[in-house]
Design a protein that fits this description.
With 81 residues, this protein is of the alpha+beta class. It has one domain (8-67). 17% of the residues lie in helices and 16% in strands. The strands form two sheets. The chain has a two-stranded antiparallel ribbon with strand order 1-2. Strands 3-4 form a two-stranded antiparallel sheet. A hairpin with a 7-residue loop joins strand 1 (8-12) and strand 2 (20-23). The longest helix has 14 residues, at 46-59. It is globular, with a radius of gyration of 13 Å. 17% of the residues are buried.
Amino acid sequence: MLNSTRGDIVGDCPRCGEHSIVDPQVLNALSQTTRGPDDVSVYVCSLCGTDEGMMEYFTKGCQPQSEWPIAKREYELPLFY
């Protein structure tokens, strides 16, 4: 069996509201909307982090926090657990 370190669930993703934010923070994704030098770090679920990264790459931007929670991810990837 692989040594798995799944974190404790500490809340819902602020971007989608669907998936969980876990502790420790390194198991989540740092939102692309908080990459400025004076921004407060906001963590989102891994699926939202991937979605934001794809949006940044392909469309040169992602939804600002003022538009959260989002209705649907632009680049939904299948889940394999």
